[in-house]
Amino acid sequence: MSDVVKIISCRNESKDTKTLEFKWDKNIKAGQFVMIWIPDTDEIPMSVSSVGEIKSITVKSVGDATKAIHKLKEGDMIGIRGPYGNGFCIPGEKNILIVAGGVGIAAVMPVIRETGADTVLGARTKDEIIMEEEINRYSKNVRISTDDGSYGFKGNAVLLMKEVMSAKKYDVVIGCGPEVMLYHVYKECTKSNTECELSLERFMKCAAGLCGSCAIGGMRVCKDGPVFNTEQIAQLKEFGFGH
Question: Residue 124: left (phi > 0), alpha (psi -120 to 50), or beta?
């Protein structure tokens, strides 16, 4: 059953991405997700980009439901249920590298705020980079890549990750972004014998592990994930062939 919360602020992160803040009396772990219900439209899964007293979701406009969310304003109400799934296991006193692609940075922002971890953020162009100012406020070391070279390192996030990891030893890599990016993050971590925790995405409808719509390799992303560790990912034969 959904709770109803009031949006207390909206801010644009880029031309097609915005963050909505609200108060919600639930404890959420970084990496977990919620189901957002938009009246007369749909219910969709969303990562949580802030997990403190003030919660937030960061939404890229890509379909009917997300376009409807973008039309919401301060004072409007949305339905929310959850949180669901497991989150990131944030290791204390260890060197963490965050690797994020595009709007995937939203799901790992709570980790950056908590740990100040080194961060690699990749985007296709400069215009698609979001949350840079906030990342710099918390992260010890921030590197940004763009596919077209319009800002920062020219190339994708995985190429930049390799450069960063060649200069410093990390205990764990935490990642979120397009699956093709995460697949190569996993491969690089395997080569360097570095643990990783990756947030995967599949179509999630019930969020309770019942409908099977998010199944991957015998696991359910909504229930067994969305965060998977190195050992679990090694068993996901379909990983890398998804979104």
Answer: alpha
Instruction: Count CB neighbours of 129 within 10 A.
Output: 22
- The fold adopted by the segment(s) 3-84 is Elongation Factor Tu (Ef-tu); domain 3 (2.40.30)
Averages of pLDDT over runs of 10 residues in the chain (243 residues) are 92 96 95 90 91 95 92 95 93 89 96 96 96 95 97 97 96 95 96 95 68 73 86 84 55
Separation between Cα atoms, residue 32 and residue 46, nearest integer Å: 9
- Spatial distance between the Cα atoms of 139 and 237, rounded to a whole number of angstroms: 34
* Distances from the Cα of 220 to the Cα of 16, 57, 103, angstroms: 30, 22, 22
CA distance 92 to 107: 19
Integer CA distances (angstroms), 190 to 38, 98, 232, in order:
40, 16, 13
Fold for 96-233, please state it: Rossmann fold (3.40.50)
Tokens representing residue 189 in the block: 């971590």
The residue ranges of every structural domain in the chain are 3-84, 96-233
Q: Give the separation between CA 19 and CA 137, rounded to whole angstroms.
A: 17
118-123 β-sheet, strand order? 153-154, 142-146, 118-123, 96-101, 172-176, 195-199, 227-229
Q: What share of the chain is helix, strand, coil (3-state, %, to 5)?
A: 25, 35, 40
d(CA 94, CA 137): 20
Q: What is the pTM of this model?
A: 0.92
